[in-house]
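Input:
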Amino acid sequence: MAVTLRKSIPHIVMIAYVVIILLPFVFILFSSLKVNNTEIATHPFGLPKTWEFGNYKEAWVKAKINVYFFNSLYLAFSAAVVGVLLSAATSYAITRMKFRRTSNGIYQFVLIGMLIPGNVLFIAQYLLVQKLGILDTHWSLFLPYTAGALPFSILLISAFMKSIPQELEEAAVVDGMNVFRMFFQIILPLTVPALVTVFIVNFLGNWNEYLLSFFFISKDALRTLPSGMVQFRDAFQTNYALVCTGIVFSVVPVLILYAFLQRKIIEGLTAGSLKG
Amino acid sequence: MKTTLKNPYVYLLFVVPTIVLYFLFFIYPMLTSVYYGFTNWNGLNTKDYIGFDNFVNAFKDADFRNSILNNVYILLFSCGVQVPLIVVFSLLISQMKRFQGFYKTTVFMPSILSTSVIGILWGYIYDPDVGLINNILKTFGMDPIYFLADTKWALVSILITNAWQWMGFYIVLILAAILSIPRDIDEAAMIDGATGVQRAWYLTVPLIKPIINVVIMLSIAGALRVVDIVLVMTGGGPVGSTEVMASYMVNKAIKFGDYGYGTALSIIIFIFALILTALYQILIVRRQEKVEY
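Output:
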C-alpha cells in the first residue's frame, strides 16, 4: 500500500501540472462556444448549454481572422522555404566546395548573428525598412524573417552536410555531373532531415512572431495572426466569446502540426536554443 | 573533381544572396544602432552627435531604472524559482516508466505557441469579471482581484504566464540530458540501497550540472529579452509597474520617435546581456570541474 502510494505521488504531481497546462485551453474552447458574456460568467466551468458555432463563422469572416490567417500562413511558409533554400545553398558552398579559407571566414561571420538578440536590432531594422520604402508591406516582414533564420539554419545544415562522405561526390564527378545536379540530386536529398527540422523551426518562429508584425504593418488587411489577434482583442474587448474563438483559430493549426510532428519540433527547437 | 567543385561563379551564386541579406538585416542594423545611439535623432531634425549623453540620460531616467528593476525581478524569479522547479519536474518525469512521452509532449506544448496569443489567452484567464481564476475565487466567496490592473499583482501575473509558457521547454532540455546518463550508475546506487531522492540529488543532479548551467544562461538571456508578453498583456502599465527595458525601448522609439535614445537603450540591453552571461560563465561555470560519465 505504502509503496503504491509512493509510486503514484510523482504521477499526481505531474497530472496537476498537465491540468494547469491544459485548463486554460479547455476554458477558452468552452467559452468560444457560449452565447454571451453572461453565460461565461454564470457557468464558467460547465459545457456550453447550446453549442454556438456561429461565433466561429462570425470571427472567421466578419472579424477578418481569415485574412490574418492566410497572411500568416503564406508569409511564414514562404520565408521559411526561402530561408531553408538560401541556407542550404550557402552551406553546400562552404562545406563541400574547395574554397577553404573564404568558407571558414563566411561561416564565422554568419555565426556572429547568433550572438545578437533579436529585439536589440528592432529600432534599426524599423528605420531600415522605412528607408527601403517597404514599411507597411509584406516585404518588411518577409526579409527580416528570412534573414533572421539564416545563422541558425546555416549552423545546423552545414553541420549535417559535413558528415556526408566525400566519395559520393567523387563518384558523381567521375560520372560527369555538374555542381548544380550534384547539389540538387545528391546532397540536398541526403540533407532532408536537417532541412525539415530547420523548416519547422523557422516556420513556427515566423508564424508566432509578434513584435515586427505589429509595428512594421499598420494596414489591417496585411496583418498576421499574432498582431491581428491583438488588434482583434482591442476591438472586441467586451465580446469574450468572439475573442476566444479567435484564440482557437490561431492555436489549433499549431497544435495539429505539433500532434503530427512533435518529435521533429521538440528536437529542432531544443537544438536551436542549445547551439545558440 | 577539382574544377567542378572549384567553380568560383557557382560559389558566388550560392553564397552572395545569403551574405547580402544577412549583412542588410543583421550587420548593418547593428552598426547603425551604434551610430544612432550617439545621436539625438528623433526622426525629424538632423542627427547631431551628442557623445554619451543618451547613455548618461538613460541611467538618470527614473522610468528606465524602474524597468531595469523589473527585469531584475524577472531574472531572479526565473533563476531562483523556475529553475529549481524545472529540475524537480524533469527528475520526476525521468523516473517514470509510463506516460513519460505524454508528460513531455504536454509540458512542452505552450512553448510552441505565439507569445502574443498566450498573452491574450491569459489576459482572459485573469479577467476580473469572467476570468477563470476570479471565478474560482468567487466560489470561495472572495472578492475579484484585478490582476492586470493592480500594481501589486500585474508583474506577478506576467511572471506566472511567462513561467507557464517556458518551463516545459527547459524541462524537455534537462530531461534529455538525464535520459542520456547511462543507466548502470543509477542501478549500482539502487543495489547499494540509495533511495530515489538520494540518487536524484547525489548522482543525477551533479551529472546534469552542465545542462543546468545552460538553462540558467538561457533564462538570463530570456529574462532580458522579455517584451512581447508585456506589450500584449499590460503595455507596461499600470503606472509602469510591468515596464521592462525592451518594452520601454520600443515605446520610446515608436510612440515618441526618439530613435537616438531608443537605440542607445537597445545597446544598453545588449551590453547587460553580454556582461551577465560573461559573469555567470566566469564565476560559476569555470569553477566547476568538467563532468565525465
